[in-house]
Amino acid sequence: MVEEAAPGAGWQVWNAEEARVVFAYRPDVFDGEEFPAPCLPTIYVTRGRRNRRPGANRNLPPDAPWLVTLYLEPDVERPPDAYETREAALLGAESLSERFAAGELDYRSLYQVPRDRYLEELDSLTGRDG
User: Fold this and answer.
1) Which terminus of the chain is more exposed, N or C, with fewer CB under 10 A?
2) In this structure, are residues 64 and 75 in contact, taking their beta carbons and an 8 Å threshold?
3) What DSSP assignment string belongs to 89-126?
């Protein structure tokens, strides 16, 4: 269950509901002061595609996959990984958060127009600056 989720270093369970779980990375750093709040890296675990409209995912087919998506900003995301069950998706989210925290993900390639200062901070926090 979500209570037992063990995200990687620097990640925490930000929000946990039956249909959606959100992990947040280093909210102490990406707090809206030095870096804009929308730059808070997040991992969403959702059944079906994440939708900002309330109630949009209510009529999903019973076999809709669970998706794990990393967002660096609202319009900058890693293509989602699909899983058959919520439990498998949570394990996938934990693995993704661990790889991110260890500097194993190439998040820079997700940007068309990079935010150099922001990406340098991520590099520093994830050990990619060396």
Assistant:
1) C
2) no
3) HHHHHHHHHHHHHTT-S-GGGG-SS--HHHHHHHHHHT
Total residue count of the chain as it appears in this document: 130
Query: Which pTM was predicted?
Result: 0.84
User: For 11, what's the count of Cα atoms within 13 Å in the CB-facing half-sphere?
Assistant: 26
Q: What is the mean pLDDT of residues 82-109?
A: 95
Query: What are the two backbone dihedrals, phi and then psi, of residue 108, each rounded to the nearest 5 degrees?
Result: -65, -30
Domain range list for the chain = 2-125
Contacts of 112 (CB under 8 A, 6+ apart): none
Output the six-digit token pair for 81: 């990984």
Q: How far is the C-alpha of 103 from the C-alpha of 127, rounded, in Å?
A: 6
Question: Which tokens in the block code for residue 67?
Answer: 């998706």
Give 31-38 contacts, CB < 8 A, sequence gap 24+.
35/118, 35/121, 38/73, 38/74
pLDDT tier for residue 19 given thresholds of 50, 70 and 90: confident
Backbone φ and ψ for 107, nearest 5 degrees, come out as: -75, -20
For residue 102, what are its two tokens? 């260890």
